[in-house]
Amino acid sequence: MSIHPTLRLSDLAGLDLQCSCGRRHQVPIRHIVTGEGALERLPEVVASFSGKRALLIGDSHTWPLAGEKAQELLTSTGIQVTPYIFSRRDHYLTDEYAIGELLVALPQQTDLIVTVGSGTMNDVTRTVAVRCGLPWIIIGTAPSMDGYASSTSAIIINDEKRSVPLGSPYGIVMDTDLLVTAPDEMLSAGIGDVLGKYVTLADWRLAAREGREHYCETIAGLIEAACGRCLAGYEHVLARDSAAIEDMAGTLVMAGVAISMFGTSRPCAGSEHQLAHVWEVAAIQRGGQSPLHGNFVGLGTVASILLYQAAAENFGFTDLQQALPEAKMISEILTRAGGWASKERLGIDRALFESSFTHAARTNPRYTILTYLEERGCLEIYAKQVTALLYDV
């Protein structure tokens, strides 16, 4: 079987491909259901669990959207459902406390976890489900991040963010009728996460060129084609057009599928994510409500593109830089999306921004343009240049 960039997302469920890149790619996800009214198809996703016991979880924001309906649909298939709504009403993180809360709530006799939510709910569920050897299904409520289909989770332990290899969900249900109701901040985060893939691909190609990483053109082509569609249609996303939001959600799920296919987050996280992680940890340490991951990635995308622009000619990777969108265009899109990814809104001052380049390069082992310039002893010089471009205006 070959993969065409226009392949339907649902066709990737259960994929087993011996790829021309020399590796075998597998997608252990059994069901990927998207589109208007997708929630109504939940019974077919859980058909093999009839007569089993499921923990159905949500929080104060997501439960009212689809919790009761999901419980009704699960019960109609003969599944015994134990509902659990996370107790905290304020913003919470994928940390020891949220993971511990779900572990305590998990009945000893559980065969399946079904979650209604997006980023944090998804990562908390994945962590607990994998550690307990349970399958899980995610009912997505916002097109805000690429973790739905991923096999990894970003977990905060002792105020440090780590990407932890775990596993993929049994099923994903993305109902456009739910996604179009997502808050503006979450739509902006989804756009930021999608746009960041352009930098990811440039970093991946740079790493392959330097002999540091295995590269798969098949996976890269899937991501690039999906991102191109979203870039062309972002205005329709902002207008909450159902088809455009479904397409963006599909791109985010596709990115997670790519992680499952490749085995690591290499196809979907590069220097833009490395920078975002530094800023996220700083926000956590400040306390209070932390901005969404995808909005940090949005600013990281602008910063990384400017870094490529500053360094490309001197180091012979102008082709990589020219394949990237213009930083000005990305900034304008993020501004039109509500300005959630601005350095001011994210609380990133000049000193933090400038130091984040070297900190990310030295604490994250992934090979990116940050690593490339750090190894050549000039990252700090270029960090100053990029910082000046964004702060001296």
Describe the structure.
It is built from 17 helices and 10 strands. The chain folds into 2 domains: about 10-180, Rossmann fold; about 185-390, Dehydroquinate synthase-like - alpha domain (Dehydroquinate synthase-like, alpha domain), CATH 1.20.1090.10. It is of the alpha/beta class. The model has no long low-confidence stretch (mean pLDDT about 90). Strand 8 and strand 9 (about 160-165) form a beta hairpin.
- The residue ranges in which pLDDT falls below 50 over 5 or more consecutive positions are none
Quick one: how many beta strands? 10
Instruction: Label the structural class.
Output: alpha/beta
Query: Largest sheet, order of strands side by side?
Result: 3-10-7-6-4-5
SS field, number of helical segments: 17
Query: Could you say what the CATH topology of the largest domain is called?
Result: Dehydroquinate synthase-like, alpha domain
What fraction, in percent, of the residue positions are helical?
40-55%
Secondary-structure element pattern, one letter each: EEEHEHEHEHEEEEHHHHHHHHHHHHH
Span from first to last CA?
Answer: 52 Å
* Beta-strand content estimate: 5-15%
Rg, Å, rounded: 20 Å
